[in-house]
Design a protein that fits this description.
There is one protein chain. By secondary structure, the chain is of the alpha/beta class. It has 13 helices and twelve strands. Helices cover 35% and strands 18% of the residues. The longest helix has 16 residues. It is globular and about 65 Å long.
């Protein structure tokens, strides 16, 4: 019999708040964290809306409990803060005899440090502590050191599906008996590189994003970090942790249709969701809610919507995108939305698709417009689709 995968700890920092409690409070109040840029010196500062963590780097050092030092990117600090909250919540710092892994996702890495100090590097060779932080794996290594994790450490970088793939790999490692428990998730900070890259693709909305709306105009980028503690049944017997929910299904497909666009018919999204259902043993009708990838771009929402209609064949569950709350946190989106999915199961609530008004002409469903609290939520699907067509779907079950 396949080993069950329990979620026993969560930690998050986002534009909604600096911990799980603050994020939940904002969600329950249907309060978005999208706003103007404050901490990045960019020409786009007064032009774009983002989901920015409302703390300076100096304040992040304090929150992380680390003395200010070169070599720590904003991305790394966000990761340490969220990872530590999850680790404390899931008693990861105890029972050191259990085989414990860290699987962390990021794509931008320490690009903010490179932007700040590249000119200095060209001028002299004395302030080079930031160079290592440019590597995506540096944030993972620093999180591992802070938490004392050494049994297994790896970094995943598959764009916007990165953190979902971290959770999938963690579950597979536990199911294969390679690890007893895993801290899995992702971190991503906003940078000029980040903003300029997406702006060059012409997929940023200068107003609050409107996923699955006929008037949608693109993404609001966000930043943050989110981590979940995954445990086997044998592990929770030793730790005494009370499961928050179960991760029961996962599926990944790489359609490779285009470097940045999804296929018009959503074949990758369809295959990822179908595989997740097969792993879980559930049927499409068992899904109560889909936390959609829902970026607000013309391409994604149509592609994902078509895939959902094909898979669920007229019996479509409640759907919403939570990116109007948090912004699109790219590599951290999969774990951010995994935590929001777990909160759905814990609090029996379905999050609204903020800013939605006009249904898409090409689709036969509309997302949830207002928060739903009067219907049972037992099984949630969460989608994360990345550039290059790397698409991942996760399924969570109420415990």
């Amino acid at each position: 019999m396949a080993r069950r995968i329990y979620i026993t700890g969560t930690g998050i920092i986002s534009c909604l708040g600096k911990n799980l409690r603050e994020n939940l409070t904002a969600l329950l109040a249907s309060r978005s964290g999208i706003g103007r840029i404050h901490y990045i010196e960019t020409l786009l500062k007064d032009e774009l809306l983002v989901g920015e963590v409302p703390l300076s780097k100096e304040e992040l050092f304090v929150l992380a409990g680390i003395a200010p030092a070169e070599g720590y990117s904003r991305n790394t600090l966000l990761g340490i803060i969220a990872a530590r909250e999850a680790a404390v919540h899931g008693k990861l710092l105890e029972n050191r005899d259990l085989k414990t892994g860290l699987i962390s996702a990021t794509t931008v890495g320490g690009m903010d440090q490179c932007e700040l100090y590249y000119s200095d590097f060209l001028a002299n060779d004395t302030r080079n502590a930031y160079i290592d932080s440019y590597d995506c794996a540096d944030s993972t290594e620093k999180i591992a050191v802070e938490l004392g994790i050494s049994d297994y450490i790896t970094t995943i970088s598959t764009a916007c599906s990165s953190a979902a793939n971290a959770l999938m790999l963690g579950a597979r490692m536990i199911r294969a008996g390679r690890l007893d428990r895993v801290l899995a998730g992702g971190c991503e900070s906003l940078t000029k590189f980040h903003l300029n890259g997406f702006n060059a693709l012409k997929i940023l909305d200068k107003e609050p994003c409107k996923p699955f709306d006929q008037r949608r105009a693109g993404i609001n980028l966000g930043e943050g970090a989110a981590y979940l503690v995954l445990e086997s049944e044998e592990s929770i017997i030793k730790t005494g942790n009370q499961p928050l929910s179960e991760l029961v299904g996962w599926g990944n497909a790489c359609e490779a249709f285009h470097q940045t666009a999804s296929s018009p018919d959503g074949v990758g999204a369809y295959l990822a969701m179908k595989k997740a259902l097969e792993v879980s043993g559930f049927q499409p009708g068992d899904i109560d809610y889909i936390n959609a990838h829902g970026t607000g771009t013309d391409n994604n929402d149509l592609s994902e919507g078509k895939a959902i209609e094909k898979l669920f064949e007229g019996r479509i569950p409640h759907i919403s995108s939570t990116k109007p709350f948090t912004g699109h946190t790219t590599s951290a989106a999969g774990s951010t939305e995994a935590i929001l999915s777990v909160l759905c199961l814990q609090h029996q609530v379905i999050w609204p698709n903020l800013n939605f008004e006009v249904p898409m002409e090409e689709l036969h469903f509309s997302p949830v417009k207002t928060r739903i609290t009067d219907q049972p939520v037992n099984v949630v699907m969460s989608n994360s689709f990345g550039f290059g067509g790397n698409d991942t779907s996760l399924i969570f079950k109420k415990y």
